[in-house]
Design brief:
The chain is mainly beta. Helices cover about 5% and strands about 50% of the residues.
């Protein structure tokens, strides 16, 4: 752990993304979903925009001055101006389960990568936002990596949260093989979280420092900067 920051405990975090010295956050729940700009040094909210109460915000990724957000069950996605958070465009999408959970931008392949709670990574064309292929992810024990949630591109690999598990998976996007699993059980133990009304571990983003990532959770009162050991 490099640093612990205060975080809005009302934020049901579904996605974190960082670029251009700015940290953005996408939060879920019907009637409570928001898109936010956070101070990358303090995690305090600098700007927040409420979403349509009929949609449930999920993951979000930054690409070329815009934020690309997905939603849970409505098959809708939204594109925002990353600076003003103004809604630019709405789009439809489809996945294995026809849900949206996590999304990240892969700068090496110039494409989006999306999860939907299944064991699949879905790859989207950056212009059409349509699926070009998908790949099944296998955990180190040989089992399918079910319930893949928030994801983040990091050093040529995909970091993934798993719903209701305090782990970060390191996935080779070319093969779907999980190369490493980081154990985060001691970061903010479940029994302590339960007492405070905090939910699951979810939310990953790169930071200004290439060795440090941000992690947090749904309705967590804290966010962490951590360094992943080799």
């Amino acid at each position: 752990i490099v640093e612990q920051l205060e975080h809005d405990s009302n934020a049901f975090v579904q996605g974190l993304t960082y670029a251009e010295s700015t940290l953005w956050e996408s939060n879920g729940l019907y009637g409570e979903s928001t898109v936010r700009i956070l101070d990358p040094d303090t995690a305090q909210v600098e700007k927040s925009v409420d979403m349509d109460p009929q949609v449930f915000g999920e993951g979000m990724a930054y690409y070329d001055g815009k934020l690309y957000q997905i939603t849970w069950k409505s098959n809708k996605g939204f594109i925002y101006n990353a600076t003003t958070l103004e809604l630019i465009e709405e789009y439809e999408f489809h996945t294995t389960r026809n849900q949206g959970w996590g999304i990240t931008w892969d700068p090496c392949q110039s494409e989006f990568v999306v999860t939907d709670g299944s064991a699949n990574l879905h790859f989207w064309d950056k212009d059409t936002l349509e699926e070009t292929r998908k790949i099944a992810v296998t955990r180190m024990n040989g089992q399918p990596a079910k319930e893949l949630n928030e994801i983040e591109w990091y050093r040529g690999r995909i970091l993934a949260n798993v719903w209701f598990e305090d782990v970060l998976l390191v996935i080779d996007p070319a093969t779907g093989t999980v190369e490493k699993e980081y154990d985060f059980r001691d970061l903010f133990p479940k029994d302590e979280r339960k007492q405070l009304g905090c939910d699951v571990f979810n939310g990953i983003s790169v930071s200004e420092d290439p060795d440090i990532i941000y992690v947090t959770g749904k309705k967590w009162d804290r966010m962490f900067k951590v360094r992943l050991l080799p």
